[in-house]
TrEMBL record, chain A:
Residues 1-90 form the Ig-like domain. Immunoglobulins are composed of two identical heavy chains and two identical light chains; disulfide-linked. SUPFAM superfamilies: Immunoglobulin. It is found in: Cell membrane; Secreted. This is IGL c4022_light_IGLV2-23_IGLJ2. Keywords: Adaptive immunity, Cell membrane, Disulfide bond, Immunity, Immunoglobulin, Immunoglobulin domain, Membrane, Secreted. One of its GO terms (biological process) is adaptive immune response. Pfam families: V-set. Its main location: membrane. It comes from Homo sapiens. GO terms for cellular component: extracellular region; immunoglobulin complex; plasma membrane.
Amino acid sequence: QSALTQPASVSGSPGQSITISCTGTSSDVGSYNLVSWYQQHPGKAPKLMIYEVSKRPSGVSNRFSGSKSGNTASLTISGLQAEDEADYYCCSYAGSSTYVVFGGGTKLTVL
Amino acid sequence: EVQLVQSGAEVKKPGESLKISCKGSGYSFTSYWIGWVRQMPGKGLEWMGIIYPGDSDTRYSPSFQGQVTISADKSISTAYLQWSSLKASDTAMYYCARQDFDTLTPDYWGQGTLVTVSS
């Protein structure tokens, strides 16, 4: 069982918006604004899409946005495109004994 | 351009030892952590541990403590992940990732090294 809980799958049609949740605890997501999100296409390495809850690295589309409330972080993708179909993982700092934890991943299907 | 280049795929037998590598370039190798992440077939990402090549400070996930050893040679900008006795359950893709000094956020990732352990 992963440290952070994500839905196994979400889907949406092109042009729509979807949101993926990531639920942790007061020891990780709830205590630090250090949640990041990764996109992984089949057979590829993960790619950083969001860091520190809501910041976008250079080159990442502004269709990707992040937020957090309490122990739950969220990734929203607006204007869904076919190339957004991938697995998405959340990640959080978890303190000085566990350090880093990942969510179990969410498979996004663009219908 | 930041790059992390990992060593090639490995096929090993149970009980054998293995050391895989991750060479960094395009940034100050001694100013960031290098982490290792496991992805078992069809499964999610699992954080294993990190090393700070500047002083070899090493931290492990409780799940991987004692199971693997992380090391680095800063003179050649290379980090390593090693096993002393492989098990079939170690079969997985292993990624290295550069992690921010302060926040530990993984930002740049290697291409992955597939380790297959089978008799």
